[in-house]
Amino acid sequence: MKKMCLFLLVAAAGVWAGMSNAFGCTGFVAGKDATADGFRIIARTEDLSGAHNKTFKVYPHQKNRKPVQFTDSIGFKIELPKESYRYTAICDAEQSEGIYDEVGFNEYGVAMSATVSASPGKAAEAADPLVENGLSEASMTTVVLPYITTAREGVERIAKIVDTYGSAEGNILFIADDKESWYMEIYTGHQYAAVKVPDDMYAVVPNCFLLGYVDTTSKDVIASKDLINLPKSKGFYKEVDGKFHAGLTYGEEMSDYNRVRLWGGQNKLSPSAKVAYDTKLFSLWRKADKKIALEDVMELQRYRYEDTDKNANLPENAGVRAIGTPTSMECHIIQMKDTLPKAVGGVMWMAMANAEHSVYLPFYGNITDTYAAYKVDNKMYTPDSFYWLMRTINVFSALNRDMYGKNVRSYWKAYEQKLIKEQKGKDAEIARLYTKKGESAAAKYATKLGNDQAADVFEKAQKIYPELVGFAAQNEGRTPKKAFEPSVAKEK
């Protein structure tokens, strides 16, 4: 018993790993002609800590008698409109440092994922300092998504806020609706640029600015008025092939922390490009060798460069920053589906904790509630929390990926494949209900579907966890004769 307790304490320490050694997230976007099913994608892994409970909830539509005065944890203050639209969000359970409504849909079918953190270069920040109590990731989705009806409106609202109040951080974000997707970089206190995502391209987005030439006269660009004039006047303006380059002008020098994710992600999706690790200037936009399937993005968010000499699972590569990292608190992939009613928007595939040994579940944009285990807001471990259950399964699976984690991952992958195959029929049903019976009937169907799927996975995960812990404890200090296999894998 004493050995068992000690083993559990040591393993549980892995739950708290990465509390202070991670910065930011990894984003991904793809245009409709770049994907296998023709649906645009915005996606991101939210990375910070190996022990940071996230909750998934729905904020209702609200009408107040007067505008709302909003103040966040860093002192950012703004007057919000009297009416706010319903929206879904994955937010922090413990909000002393901010709400962090990281991603969601609103009732107009607009989706937003914010943010991927990035830092300006020293010259850029000196010329236009970040504003201590300006707009930050902690509040961005909260003060934008409930107040917009299109993706362009979202970008314009952020631009106006940054113009007026300034930005507290360098950030990258994605906003999409039924017609278009936008990619936005906020560089310094008041400088930013946003562009439409090209239809035939994708982008892997680590924690650095990558946007190249920005045509500020184009209707497909929204940029700060001094985006180009400021660096010219202050001496940090940079060009590539005779044209202004936003990322080089405003960003830091490329670090290995970011370089490895660009190199790994671009070579995974565009192997024929043979992108060199020491590439001097990475392109933001790339064409994939083949159409990108939903499963490809799921695997990208789990990717640890296993097929390269940077394999992050090897002891000698312990310092390599993988895309699939244990510091992910949740991972999401949003498919914008123009085949669905605008109010539905699309589907968010969400995996709680790090995706490597977790499972992606689909949620329509018009849900009105979420499963109870998603709303448990304990800061410390509790078994009735979806986040904490999936996080601890990940910890024990990663102790020995071959013997503990392999069959957990393969089980969840098979579960995902089943959901993906069923999704087309569910899309047809929600569209039929919306047309024949109205918005309320479609929302009721979507909500029940999401809750039922979550309940089924939670029940299965509750079986996997104690079996996995017991197997790991029994095999402490020795190599198991065969790999762990969850009992649910044998159920029909």
Describe this protein's structure.
It catalyses: an L-aminoacyl-L-amino acid + H2O = 2 an L-alpha-amino acid. InterPro entries: C69_dipept_A-like, Peptidase_C69. Pfam families: Peptidase_C69. The protein has 492 residues and is an alpha+beta fold. The protein has one domain (2-472): Penicillin V Acylase, Chain A, CATH 3.60.60.10. It has eleven helices and 20 strands. Strands 14-1-2-18-19-20 form a six-stranded antiparallel sheet. A hairpin with a 5-residue loop joins strand 9 (103-105) and strand 10 (111-118). Helix 9 packs antiparallel against helix 10 (401-437) and helix 9 runs parallel beside helix 11 (439-474). The longest helix is centred in the last third of the chain and has 37 residues, at 401-437. 49% of the residues are buried. The model is unreliable at 1-10 and 15-22 (pLDDT under 50).
Helix fraction bin: 25-40%
* CATH topology grouping: Penicillin V Acylase, Chain A
Strand neighbour order, sheet with most strands: 14-1-2-18-19-20
β-strand percent reads: 15-25%
Q: What is the CATH domain class?
A: Alpha Beta
Using only C-alpha atoms, the radius of gyration works out to: 22 Å
Instruction: Compute the average pLDDT.
Output: 95
Identify the overall geometry. globular
Low-confidence stretches: 1-10, 15-22
Class computed from helices, strands and strand pairing: alpha+beta
What's the structural blueprint in terms of helices and strands?
Layout: H1 2-12, E1 26-30, E2 40-47, E3 54-59, E4 62-63, E5 68-71, E6 77-80, E7 83-84, E8 87-92, E9 103-105, E10 111-118, H2 122-127, H3 137-144, H4 151-165, E11 170-176, E12 181-186, E13 192-196, E14 202-205, E15 221-223, H5 229-234, E16 239-240, E17 243-244, H6 246-250, H7 256-269, H8 294-302, E18 328-336, E19 346-352, E20 361-364, H9 386-399, H10 401-437, H11 439-474
Antiparallel strand pairs: 1-2, 1-14, 2-18, 3-8, 4-7, 5-6, 9-10, 10-11, 11-12, 12-13, 13-15, 16-17, 18-19, 19-20
Helix pairs in contact: 9-10, 9-11, 10-11
